[in-house]
Design goal:
Blueprint: H1 6-33, H2 36-52, H3 54-71, H4 82-85
Amino acid sequence: MKTVSRQSFDASIAVYMTQIGERARAAAHVVGQAGSAQKDAALHAIAQSIHEQSQAILAANSEDLKAGASTDKLHARGPVGLEGLTSQKFIVIGDGQVRK
């Protein structure tokens, strides 16, 4: 098994995060040029994709929780119980309504 030094690991994360930032900036430009209908369609497609993949997402999150609990490592904000590591699932469906 190949071991990676902490410095090398930190550097690879820095490179990865820089790449994500660059892609986000490029995407922001494209989104800024899109019309409302295109943005609405994109948001609906994203929501549909999340809904369709919700079982896989929840299963992956469950695996992450198990892995985190088994390492006995502290969370960045200090000790948290399982309730602090889980989230609630809400599905909101609408078409631009504003709650008053």
